[in-house]
């Protein structure tokens, strides 16, 4: 639980993504058509938070090692950020696809 507490205190992106989760979780019940879609929307949303925590951990370790610029440190941070970006894009694609599909079917 220290990890969650630390992420909450020190990572603005983590707090923003949790706010997004609070908004999206109830919406999943309206957007999702059946249990499988609802669970997919919830899991893909939590994936963003998980990847953000891992990225924050990578950044903390790199910063702990030293403040001088090193190519490998930069690569590690860049790859962590890329993982967060991919998780966010995957989240947007799944939410967009299911929302669009279910709206068209409803119409």
From TrEMBL:
Its EC number is 2.7.1.107. Its cofactor is Mg(2+). PROSITE patterns: DAGK_PROKAR. Gene3D superfamilies: 1.10.287.3610. Mn(2+), Zn(2+), Cd(2+) and Co(2+) support activity to lesser extents. It catalyses: a 1,2-diacyl-sn-glycerol + ATP = a 1,2-diacyl-sn-glycero-3-phosphate + ADP + H(+). One of its GO terms (cellular component) is plasma membrane. InterPro entries: DAGK, DAGK_prok, DAGK_sf. ATP binds at residues 11, 59, 68-70, 77-78. One of its GO terms (molecular function) is ATP binding. The active site is at 52 (proton acceptor). Keywords: ATP-binding, Cell inner membrane, Cell membrane, Kinase, Lipid biosynthesis, Lipid metabolism, Magnesium, Membrane, Metal-binding, Nucleotide-binding, Phospholipid biosynthesis, Phospholipid metabolism, Transferase, Transmembrane, Transmembrane helix. A divalent metal cation binds at residues 11, 59. Substrate binds at residues 13-17, 52, 81. It is an enzyme of class 2 (transferase). Pfam families: DAGK_prokar (PF01219). It is a multi-pass membrane protein. Catalyzes the ATP-dependent phosphorylation of sn-l,2-diacylglycerol (DAG) to phosphatidic acid. Involved in the recycling of diacylglycerol produced as a by-product during membrane-derived oligosaccharide (MDO) biosynthesis. Belongs to the bacterial diacylglycerol kinase family. This is Diacylglycerol kinase. The gene is dgkA.
